[in-house]
Amino acid sequence: MQKERLSLDIQYGAALLAAPIFCLFYSEIFQYKADDIFWLLGDLKSLFFLILLYPVIEELTFRGIIQEYISQKTKQQILFFNLSIANLLTSILFVFMHFVHHEIIWAILTFFPSLVFGYFKEKYSKITPSIILHIFYNLCYFSFIGN
Q1: What band does 1 get if pLDDT is binned at 50, 70 and 90?
Q2: Which of 23, 71, 115, 135 has its CA 20 to 30 A from that of 127?
Q3: For residue range 64-98, what is the model confidence (pLDDT) as tens digits?
Q4: Which domain holds residue 15?
Q5: 8-51 pLDDT, tens per residue?
Q6: According to the model, what pLDDT value does residue 33 have?
Q7: Is-above-0.90 flag for pTM?
Q8: 2 in a domain, yes or no?
């Protein structure tokens, strides 16, 4: 069976579309809004770190090292809905890491995108799809929610 191409993957497209919907939904519920959604364009240092560097480092660490390690130890065991034990445990660790710089609710809410990132890492056996998603999710988060 031939692997599906990322550019033709409907699930991946849906995951990309979910980013702005997720951020808009939660910004409305929790009344968090950016005063200026274009603030990142005026702050190139923040743009580089928040949108590019941090997602790459986090994905290489969490999906590339931690999830891969747990996956090998658990023999890629699937729990439910194609979610592996490795993805679930890595996502829990991802949430704990976000407690350092985020409010509790926002740290907890990183669990769902993390599961998505981990799912696509496993689906394609590559880190690139999760890096792209993470960059896009951060772009939406920092655009809609603010600095």
Answers
A1: very low
A2: 23
A3: 999 999 999 998 888 888 899 999 999 999 999 99
A4: 10-144
A5: 789 999 999 999 988 888 777 776 665 565 666 677 887 888 89
A6: 62
A7: no
A8: no
Q: Report how many domains make up the chain.
A: 1
Is residue 1 in some structural domain?
no
Convert 42-78 to b/e letters by CB count within 10 Å (16 or more is b): eeeeebeebbeeebeebbeebbbebbbebbeeeeeee
Check: CB of residue 50 under 8 Å from CB of residue 40.
yes
Q: Hey, what are 41's tokens?
A: 């364009």
Q: Tell me, letter by letter, the H, E, C secondary structure of the chain.
A: CCCCCHHHCHHHHHHHHHHHHHHHHHHHHCCCCCCCCCHHHHCHHHHHHHHHHHHHHHHHHHHHHHHHHHHHHCCCCEEECCEEHHHHHHHHHHHHHHCCCCCHHHHHHCHHHHHHHHHHHHHHCCCHHHHHHHHHHHHHHHHHCCC
